[in-house]
Amino acid sequence: MKAETAVGDPRIADGFIRIVGLVKRFGGVPALKGVSLSIRRGEFLSILGPSGCGKTTLLRSIAGFVEPTSGEIWIDGRNVNKDPPNHRPVNTVFQNYALFPHMTVAQNIAFGPRRRGVPKSEIAGQIDEVLAMVSMESFGHRYPRELSGGQQQRIALARAIINKPKVLLLDEPLGALDLKLRKRMQVELKRLHERLGITFVYVTHDQEEALVMSDRIAVMNVGEIVQLGTGEDIYRQPSSRYVADFIGEANLIDCILDGAGTIRLGPSSPPLPYKLPRSSAMNGHAAGQAKATLMVRPEDIRLGEGGERNSVVVQAKLRDKVFVGQSWRLFAVLESGQEIVVQPGFSPSAEKISRGDEMKIWWPQDRSQVLGE
Amino acid sequence: MVGQSTFLGRLPVTVAAWLALFYLAIPLVIVSAVSVTNTEFLAFPPQGLTLRWYSTVITDSSYVKSFLLSGYLAAISTVAAVFLGVPTALILARKEFPGRQAIGALFLSPLILPTIVLGVVVLQFSARAGFPRSFYALLLGHVIVTVPYVVRTTLASLAAGFDLATEEAAQDLGAAPMQVFFLVTLPQIKQGVITGALFAFLMSWINVEVSIFNTTPTLETLPVKLMNYIQYNVDPSLAAVSATTIFIAVAAVLILDLTIGVEKATRGL
Amino acid sequence: MRRGRSDRVGLHIPPFEAFLLLGGPVLFLVLFFVVPFLTMASDSVWTDKGELTGDFYAKAVADVFYWRVLLATFELGVWVTVCTALIGYPLAYYITFYLRDPLLRRLIYIVIVTPLFTSNVVRAFAWMLVLGRQGVVNKSLILTGIADSPLLLMNTRFAMVVGLIYILLPIFVLTVASILQGINRSLLEAARDLGAGAATTFWKVTFPLSLPGVLAGSILVFTLSVSAYVTPAVMSGGRHLVMPMVIFQQYLVSFDYHVGAVLSIMLLVMTLLLLGVNFYFLGRRGKVA
Known about the structure:
Helix content of chain B: over 70%
Oligomer: heterotrimer
Largest interface: B-C, 102 and 103 residues
Structural class of chain B: mainly alpha
């Protein structure tokens, strides 16, 4: 995490959208527990988290469908807390598209401009323009029920962007599409974002989707933003077990931490070469031994003795190996008995090794991280 | 295939079902048949074939008057029921507030109240308020009887299968609440409102129990006129009037079937 | 992510507008329905001189005549309910599980619904043509030599039951059919798959699952039959009284609206008690299905 992380002090960060201490309770149950977030103009920001983490509630608060219990929302310098949805400079692409079933595609798209009093003659041209943008030129006269899911998705997008909103909110818009179409739409959405220059706020539970498209990702858990940063930051330096586990695949290795800040795999194992700052999380256990978690991504682990500077070498035994296309995937057991996944890319030694073999594995120290809870 | 054979076997169930259908259809068929008999008394099977009983009815100004009164009353009641019922259903479906259930129950309660008691209530009230046995007393009773049908069908169409996100999308695209209702909500609940209005019209059209307390010999709805007639005098003209109302019922059901589908419209009636 | 959908609020109506939209109809119903109803009910405890009294209740309760009518009404309700259920269930079962042809299905629905849109008077009149002295039944019996003289069918309790079943059968069938439609077919397939025969599947799975609907439909039929006026009045020819007929007489013949109010309330209480039971079963339906 770098200085750009605005969690905790958004008032300083001069964001295009500023969310300050947002709290929402549904009948006493908190959905948002004081979320603060600053979004830059023109940014593609994803809000990532599992079901029920509050990400949709956050998005709906920005759109105006959820009235926050407390906190403020500012868009382009204006406090919009009291503005009803129809007066906010944002448009939403809904999860299941929410196209009007009784209107044609063209009527659906014209809905926004007509409410703003755009002359009919101009609307027609604008419709053609946005339909071209989403590659749906000849579909104006169709009804939503005559379109496939992917096509409906494009129309929902066109219906929103024709209004040139300051912010486009997208609520899991690709959730209902199949994998192949989803991947294609991810690229198209990213291109559309670059072309329009509109600020995109994108809610998803799919970490890959967030990584592919976003400038920054806000990871949420039970009503709070637990980490905010670029995809690479979050992938490489997750701030917690939760984030490490949620984004990408991670080995979370249980370790023992002693008072001197030394880390070992087991009580009698050699110390691993990590220098821990005496952070607050560990102070409570300074006297005796405490637990710590070491996070290493499977693709960062190699077979052998290492040899580079700062390599971490441990002993392991192969339990199983499976071929997954571009590489072998190894299931190795550490001395402590914990199983980890190793995916060393193309490697001759991975090919030769067989079940039950003892081996040495290693990873670069800067590709791993010691985590608090 | 499940249902291909069952507890008593397919045949007995089918026979029992068709007997029940026969039971439902036959009386109405007999009335229609009797109405064309060329006799002075009710004869089935009809003897001869004539429409003279229909012409007797049409030339009887008291029948025509009752017919028109009933139609007019049903039409006005339906309009009133729609204007009272649709906003009520909308608020009940879209707003959370204390007492919502109670208000819902209040609007449906005329359905469970014995209709004869409702007739009495309207009679007593209109007598005390100074308009007994008048068109307005009838109208009042009929609106109360018909409102629940509109509320119920409209509520159902606002809930089941309605995609709330479309209303949110409309607001998101800049529509004010009124515009959302007329441009997005109403077109989607149209069927429910029409079904409710049709039920309201028919329930008013055929009502006896409420009307009978509030009519006079010069202000007589058609069912009440038939009710009074039937107890003293029975002749084929009565069959002609009855058959006419049956044809109207059939027409209404056919319209319902062609527009919405009878099965769909009567689900959860 | 399903949870997002349950959070949906749809159209946002500002509080003041909502108040106006609902306030109007509520005011109408309170002024012209609730208040008149309470006025009517108060007739049962207020004398014309404005004194509070229990005399009217005492008079009604002490009169064995009313008890006899109440009993007769109840008895009629039981007969109608049992017969309607017995006739209606197979029909509901048939249209749910056997009827495949879409056109026939529509026709059958039309046959079931058309009587509902026909006045009770016309329906009673139709039965006069069937059951009367010169009616279809008597003529056939005499023609075939089964009977020598016309049987007395009209103006009997039997006629009242037949007429009421006719009124209430469509309502029962539609209620039960909608419950049967809601039964998850895979449950029936599972029962068959687990080795249950057709009969066992019906009695152990289908029937128990439809029971809440049958009970709800039956209670509906019962309440409607005890509060019906037109059909019993016409079919009995005035010879067999039920409670609604007595209420009618109190108001329009003897002009005793105090006792009329007492009897109305008795009828209403009977209805409400049963509807309470109905509500209980309908409430449980969700858990069963």
